[in-house]
Amino acid sequence: MKATPPLPEGYEISTDPHRIDAGRVHHWLSTDAYWALGRPRDKHDRAVEGSLNFGIYDAASGEQVAYARVVTDRATFAWLCDVYVDPSVRGKGLGTALVAAVREHLRPDGPRRLLLATHDAHGVYEKLGFTALDRPDQWMVLAFGQ
Questions:
Q1: In three state form, how does the secondary structure of 2-62 look?
Q2: What is the mean pLDDT of residues 132-143?
Q3: Residues paired with 43 in a beta bridge
Q4: How far apart are CA 86 and CA 94, in angstroms?
Q5: If DSSP codes are grouped into helix, strand and coil, which group holds residue 69?
Q6: 4 vs 1: CA distance, rounded Å
Q7: pLDDT-derived band of residue 134, with 50, 70 and 90 as boundaries?
Q8: pTM confidence score
Q9: Rounded to whole angstroms, how far apart are CA atoms 58 and 47?
């Protein structure tokens, strides 16, 4: 297993749902994340409510600077999604540290795999041990559209 990179000094990670700045996260995703552009706020709020949420916060101000969401039954299945780092703090390793924290948080639950989909961040995830599917022909999707 790949080593867990440290969280840069001055930041903290939390899974406390009360700390999530839902308005800020919705703005990030619905205006700047290709996979969630235009996502309505009510749909975003339902997704957050039904998920395990991770936030990275500036330790001094408490301001949220990154977000990740996991859809999981906390036993056999986990899907990582909505990983986002505010543009003002990109390049500091926060995204890598956030995904590593998700991986380590889930490890004791024992899911067989942690899945994700990405268009452009393969390098971030590969550093943490993610690989392409060995047998993509075994996977199927039922697309409902938007």
A1: CCCCCCCCCEEEECCHHHCCHHHHHHHHHHHCCCCCCCCHHHHHHHHHCCEEEEEEECCCC
A2: 91
A3: none
A4: 10
A5: strand
A6: 9
A7: very high
A8: 0.93
A9: 24
* 29, 69 Cβ separation under 8 angstroms: no
Assigned token pair, 93: 């390793």
**Matching residue, tokens 């936030």:** 55
Q: At residue 144, what are phi and psi to the nearest 5 degrees? A: -90, -5
pLDDT tens, residue by residue, 36-90? 999 999 999 999 999 999 999 999 999 999 999 999 999 999 999 999 999 999 9
3-class secondary-structure state, position 78: strand
Confidence of residue 6 (pLDDT cuts 50, 70, 90): confident
| Contact by Cβ (8 Å): 40, 56 | no
